Amino acid sequence: MATSDEWREVAEEIAEAATPERSPALPRLYRYAVEAARLALRRFPAAVPEQGDDLVHDKLHEKLRSIVDAANPRAFFVTAIHRAAIDLLRRQKKFAPQDELDAAPPANDAVLAPDEAASLHIEAVRVLAMLDGREQQIFGGIMVGEDRDDIAAALGTSRANIDQIVSRTRRRMGGGS
């Protein structure tokens, strides 16, 4: 695994090139990026690391100059790849085949009347509006049935931290823990 100093050295070589996108040091940066991405993505569901090389290529293409100009190129890249992986997970869930969504068991056996469903929807929107961005991500994941361990991995935190945020938020909103 390349050190932060090795990342800085290769970034300097690329920055000094007349055309950074054609620098002879670019293959070395790519190798470092692949190593760093594999390490950063190992806690994500299997579908994400399988696309790791594609994510690396995309991030190096999109953010090469920002990576090279960063005070800590390795940290900048790892943050970018982590965010790209989270976005990938969101897109995969958003565009899941309808058959998978239909196959999910109903939350309970009771069927709500249209006015009750509308009322619950309005209440859910009101409650979500009271949450900050991170809390919305967590509660949104819980509402669609994601496992708390998966949510923690996607957000780069621990299950205990997720449980603490849920408990604190529920107390704040008057719902107990």
Overview of the molecule:
With 177 residues, the chain is mainly α. Helices cover 72% and strands 0% of the residues. It is built from ten helices and no strands. Helix 1 crosses helix 4, helix 2 crosses helix 5 and helix 4 packs antiparallel against helix 5. About 6% of the residues have low confidence.
Low-confidence stretches: 99-109
- The gyration radius over C-alpha positions equals 21 Å
Secondary-structure element order, N to C: HHHHHHHHHH
How can the largest sheet be summarized? none
Terminal-residue CA separation? 42 Å
Alpha-beta content class: mainly alpha
Q: Note the total helix count.
A: 10
Helix content: over 70%
Instruction: Note the overall shape.
Output: elongated
Report strand %: under 5%
Mean pLDDT over all positions? 80
The beta-strand count equals 0
Features:
10 helices, elongated, 72% helix, mainly alpha, 177 residues
Offer a quick outline of the entry:
With 177 residues, the protein is mostly helical. Helix content is 72%, strand content 0%. The chain is elongated, with a radius of gyration of 21 Å.
SSE blueprint:
Elements: H1 4-16, H2 26-40, H3 47-50, H4 52-69, H5 73-94, H6 98-103, H7 114-129, H8 133-143, H9 148-155, H10 159-172
